[in-house]
Write a structure and sequence with these properties.
The structure is a homodimer of 148-residue chains. The first copy, chain A, has 148 residues and is an alpha+beta fold. Chain A has 2 domains: 85 residues, Arc Repressor Mutant, subunit A (Orthogonal Bundle); 62 residues, 2-Layer Sandwich (Dna Ligase, domain 1). Helix content of chain A is 43%, strand content 22%. Chain A has a 3-stranded antiparallel β-sheet. In chain A, helix 2 crosses helix 3 and helix 2 packs across helix 4. The radius of gyration of chain A is 18 Å and the shape is flat. In chain A, 26% of the residues are buried. At the A-B interface, helix 5 and strand 6 of A face helix 5 and strand 6 of B. The structure holds a DNA duplex (25 and 25 nucleotides).
DNA sequence: TTAGGTGCAAACCCTTTGCTTTCTA
DNA sequence: TAGAAAGCAAAGGGTTTGCACCTAA
């Protein structure tokens, strides 16, 4: 929250009630929120906030590193708080939609190496593994596995 | 192409001129195509093909494993042929948009392990590393690095 | 001959923008 | 008080769908 305040200040912007609410809701969340979920949660606290404000604020939060957005291939963006968190990647169940976060330092090291080998300087990365979670694997063996 | 024919046959569908053309164009391509590029290329051979057919055929090709689609975070899907190719991941330059493909077996192994540790059975994965390519790094040191 | 497929245009969905009003600094 | 932000609605851009006509099998 202080990070947002600083960012806002530095750029001569204003700290509004809506920005505070959206930031609080997002930072208090611990998994992934899609836009609708965030919108609903924010409106429980402040019933007149519109989608435009959500989007505009999310952009701001992403700029100052408090949020990050992830497209999981289904067209709808999801956001997550970056507060107090390590970088992590995602395991996504293609049957039930479960999203599990994981961190793996060995992979990170290899990614850095790949970058170096190609002359790149890495600024970010994103890794998503799709598959069936333990539950879905057990529940429906003939289940459709689809990654689009 | 035989794969598509088989898929089509198996499902009682038809092998149309348009499907052939789209499959040929895609399979002959070696990098990434966005929908517009594919559309243009297909229409050079068959001027009346519409977007709907492109989308519908791409869905078919993805189902039978001949194509895969990748959202690189900018809202527009890109497709690539899966023919005769290893799985690979992507390095993306955030300044010039250059996309470099790479393969890294060590990372693949670690991904499998992560899956196993979480009880998942992996069906697919996607890894994108964002950064500055050698050229852009040299050209513009103050360049904005943005990953959305 | 008869489903399935195509093309076109309209519909959709998510996101962004324009404009007027409201409110922070 | 000035200029940024909100809220609403309309516009945009990519993708999907409905429907009448066409075509592979």
């Amino acid at each position: 929250m202080e990070v947002l305040a600083a960012h806002v200040l530095r750029r001569g912007l204003r700290m509004t009630r809506q920005r505070k609410t959206i930031a609080e809701v997002l930072l208090a969340t611990d998994g992934h929120l899609n836009i609708d979920q965030l919108y609903q949660a924010v409106r429980q606290r402040d019933p007149n906030v519109g989608y435009a404000t959500i989007y505009r604020t999310l952009k701001l939060l992403t700029e100052c590193g408090l949020a990050s957005n992830a497209h999981f291939g289904d067209g709808a963006a999801r956001f997550e708080s970056m507060m107090h968190r390590h970088h992590h990647d995602h395991l996504i169940c293609t049957a039930c939609g479960l999203i599990v976060e994981f961190e793996n330092d060995d992979i990170e090291v290899l990614q850095e190496r790949v970058c170096r080998d190609h002359g790149f300087v890495m600024s970010a990365h994103k890794m998503e593994i799709y598959g069936l979670c333990a539950r879905c694997r057990g529940a429906a063996t003939g289940q459709r596995e689809h990654v689009d």
